[in-house]
Amino acid sequence: MSGPPEFASKLRWWRRRRGISQLELAGRADISQRHLSFLELGRASPSRAMVLRLAVALDVPLRQQNALLLAAGFAPVWRETELAAPELAQVRSGLDYILSQQEPFPAVVVDRRWNLLNANAGAVRLVEFLAGPLPPDVPVNLADALVGPEVLRPFLVNWEDVVRYFIRSVEVDAAADGSAETSALLRRLLAYAGVGAVARRMSFESTSGPVLPMYFKKGETSLSLFTTIATLGTPQDITLQELRIECFFPMNESTADVFRSWAAGNKNR
């Protein structure tokens, strides 16, 4: 029995994108290479369980797992819930707790494509100090704010180093999720003036520390920060799988003192 051609082509695409052979994927999914070959050629139809087994073996994100199911003729399994929905109240509470614990230092919640979903007061104070108050109810994309020429770039002393690393991380995201939206984000970022050349230029300079810092300077105020990025464990919802929590930490006591003074209401630093 012939299988759905769209599923066959998507399966081949994902396997090649992951850079593995039919034999390796068959071993991961615990099926025969012959059966996998028939599925990739459209000569066999997968069950819903087989689609999900192959998707897990290929580390396909939940959003794209739904696309594979649809291509095979099945209804999607994974839901996508608005973060503001009542059923995610406990998750929002947990995120708020993380953000509050990071005070007075910045922390933000973003989606897969760096759209800002939530921020603590420390993050708001940092952005307002550097770029001024953000317009109310205007969507903010942190990737554009970092890479583009107008928001954070004028104050980021080591912009080239940070953007080179950031572009590579977005390239990894685009390869991992295979979505048109992430690919479009990467193209948009590379289109900003000077970004393409910076991204192509390799840096072999020795580093002075274990992490890449972000050095901001405005007037007489200098800030040195590093970041961590966390995700939710065992997500069973597309929205939750695509969430990221980024926390900023001071790399020296003078930076920590600035954030503490801002939290105390001292806007002169």
Characterize the structure shown.
By secondary structure, the protein is an alpha+beta fold. Helices cover 49% and strands 11% of the residues. The protein has 13 helices and five strands. A hairpin with a 2-residue loop joins strand 3 and strand 4. Helix 1 runs antiparallel to helix 5 (62-71). The longest helix has 19 residues, at 159-177.
Approximate strand percentage:
5-15%
Number of β-strand runs: 5
- Quickly give the CATH architecture of the largest domain: 2-Layer Sandwich
Overall 3D shape: elongated
- Radius of gyration (CA) equals 22 Å
Mean of pLDDT: 92
Amino-to-carboxy terminus distance:
72 Å
Order of helices and strands: HHHHHHEEHHHHHEEHEH
| CATH-defined fold name of the largest domain | Beta-Lactamase
Contiguous low-pLDDT stretches (5 residues minimum) are: none
Number of domains: 2
What summary fits the major beta sheet?
5 strands, antiparallel
Q: Main sheet: which strands, in order across?
A: 2-1-5-4-3
Derived from helix and strand composition plus strand pairing, the structural class reads alpha+beta
* CATH class group of the largest domain: Alpha Beta
Summarize the amount of helix as a percent range: 40-55%
Based on the structure, what is the oligomeric state of the protein chains?
Answer: single chain
Number of helices: 13
